[in-house]
Amino acid sequence: xxxxxxxxxxxxxxxxxxxxxxxxxxxxxxxxxxxxxxxxxxxxxxxxxxxxxxxxxxxxxxxxxxxxxxxxxxxxxxxxxxxxxxxxxxxxxxxxxxxxxxxxxxxxxxxxxxxxxxxxxxxxxxxx
Length: 128
Known about the structure:
single chain; Nonspecific Lipid-transfer Protein, Chain A; alpha/beta; 5-stranded mixed β-sheet; about 130 residues; two-stranded parallel ribbon
């Protein structure tokens, strides 16, 4: 059964996939990282979600994180392309499709976690 992109069910499915991935858990084993994602131009308007990782566990939820390390702004089109695997985050950033604010050094330290996030969630059945 598919989950609607950027819904509460999607966030729970992403969290489950991340916490079931040994590679992702290993990548965040010693991390305390909180990422806020703000999506513009979504079908229902602006939507936000966050991923907080600590001690090898991830929490993913729709809404606003308290004191995120990094905030990422992007369009719905970009978020969809990244989620589908049609666009990687580094290319999106380099082409200006991602607007990143906050502790960029901390984000760069955890690039492996971002790559493992994509690997862990690539097989989710998501409706766009």
